[in-house]
């Protein structure tokens, strides 16, 4: 029994405590109890660490700046890739967009939420084919765009891809320029150079490069002009070999993705190089997105095929006449007048024509020659400054532009029955009704708008974004649907959605 308790029972005084011990005892320590001894473990000081990544370590100002710049570069690169994907899907791509879109199939840093099921079936030209149809000013512009991607990239294979394209761009630009005396040394033996370098692999080219550099740095008497030009040619072949390796990986990834959707088409792609033959001509919308003072002869050549009498105004190459389009003088006059109005800053030319579903031969086809109406359509593009975009973007680094409306101008000057105006209707596939959405998160539904007229014009359809139209009478957002002087005009913008808390 406790001595103090026994003393209380016996009527004794409690044993005197050691006052000196109590005076010097730590007040925070546990109280002494002979029946239940409690020991408090000693506090261990935290280990000292000089590791830069240790938790709780404050970053210096330079390290914070480096992290901020790295995050900013990653964000800018991601947005550039996203804009390139959108332009390729909407058939208004620039040469740089085709190059960036091809790389997305093997890009480990791409955002999977930006993928589209139909991307794998979009025909894209081979990277070398993109460079073939460009002149010197266009190559210079493309070289600047490639250098921007190469500067921002951090993935090793992606950097090899852009570095190889830079070398091919510079070589192509050099060949288009008038040849100077320094290029004559290797020109005389160009066939021998091609015979020596073309069959070699990348490893063999790298070994040969070391030998040539050693020879140029040696003191032995050699023809430095020849060996210098040969080294330049070798670097070009080396870039082609690297690009060929990346393109093989792109083809393999596309074939693998297509095998689940269309095995027959995947087998055909596997037997080919996986790319389209030539690059499409640059669209007027793409040219307007990044304006340059240099003209685009590729577009002019296409436009020249449109009419033998006079070339159309610049920026209308995608409207070159083909097939059974309307060639009448009345149509041409209406078309030229609409083209002369130009395209404003927030507009782009729209040509997303689609096959009309369930089309049949019209009953009047034996009496009148069916022909497609000509058109000059515009799509209204702009920024949506919703809460998310206000948080993640600013006016110096804006979000990707989105479709905000359309302006259809379709020409029917030669209608047989002018009392019946052409009409239009909306077609939603797969049984989807108005207001319903089958699109995944972050995507928008699309639908077909079909324009219907009488003889001698066939129906024509376009794929548009399926959102609610704004029928208000506001001047800046005015809805217009009219048929006057042979022109069907349908202008509309989408309703703005305001989110409330």
TrEMBL record:
Superkingdom of the organism of origin: Eukaryota
Splicing factor cactin central domain residues: 60-246
Family: Belongs to the CACTIN family.
Biased composition (Low complexity): 274-310
InterPro entries in the record: Cactin_C, Cactin_central
Alphabetical GO biological process terms: mRNA cis splicing, via spliceosome
Gene Ontology CC, one term: spliceosomal complex
Splicing factor Cactin C-terminal domain boundaries: 364-501
Basic and acidic residues bias locations: 15-28
Protein name: Splicing factor Cactin
Matching PANTHER family: POLYGLUTAMINE BINDING PROTEIN 1/MARVEL MEMBRANE-ASSOCIATING DOMAIN CONTAINING 3, SPLICING FACTOR CACTIN
Chain residue ranges for the region called Disordered: 1-63, 269-321
